[in-house]
Amino acid sequence: MLRTLRILMLVAGVACVAIGLYHLVLGIDSVPGEEGASATVDSRERFYNAIFAGYGVAWIAAARRTPIRATDVRWLAGILFLGGVGRILSILVHGQPHWFQLPLTAIELVGPPVVFWLAAAVDRRTPVPG
After folding, report:
1. Average pLDDT in the chain
2. Alpha helix ranges (H) inside the chain
3. Going by fewer Cβ within 10 Å, which terminus of the chain is more open, N or C?
4. Residue 73 dihedral angles phi and psi, to the nearest 5°
5. Please, which residues have CB within 8 angstroms of residue 74's CB and are 6 or more apart in sequence?
6. C-alpha dihedral, 93 to 98 to 99 to 105, nearest 10°
7. Every domain of the chain and the residues it spans
8. Does residue 6 carry a pLDDT above 70?
9. Distance between CA atoms of 38 and 110, rounded to whole angstroms?
C-alpha cells in the first residue's frame, strides 16, 4: 500500500507541475474555448497555474518523506477534492463546460477518497517513532 500511495502521489505531483507550467506558459491559449478571453482572464490563468505547479511540488515533497505523513496527504487530497466541488458548482451555475473538464472533475472527486483510504492504511501500518 505504501508503494502504491507513493507512486500515486508522485504521479499527481508530476502531473500538476506539468499542467501548471503548460498553462503558465501558454495562458489562455491552453484552455479550450477561451480564445476570446481578455487579458484579465489570461493573467488569472497564468497566476493560478503557477500556484498549481507549486501544489504539484508539494505532492512530490510529501511523497519523498519517510515516513509519508498522512496529514500532508489528507490536506493535499482535500484541496484536490475541493477543486472538484468547485467544478460542480460551476456546472450548476453556468452549465456544462468543455467536455475535457468532465473527466477532470471525476478524477478530482474520486481520486481523493482513494488517496485518503491509502493514507489511512499506510498510517495504521507505520510505527509511531518514540
Report:
1. 92
2. 2-26, 39-64, 70-94, 101-125
3. C
4. -60, -45
5. 116, 119
6. -50
7. 2-125
8. yes
9. 33
Q: Whole-model pTM?
A: 0.88
Q: Which three cell numbers stand for residue 129?
A: 517513532
Q: What is the DSSP letter of 85?
A: H
Q: Determine the longest span between alpha carbons in the chain, in angstroms.
A: 59
Q: What is the pLDDT of residue 32?
A: 83
Q: What is the DSSP letter of 31?
A: S
pLDDT digits (tens, 9 = 90+) for 52-93: 999 999 999 999 999 999 999 999 999 999 999 999 999 999
Question: Length of the chain in residues, anyone?
Answer: 130
Residue carrying the nine cell digits 506539468: 18
Helix-helix angle 70-94:2-26, to 10 degrees = 50
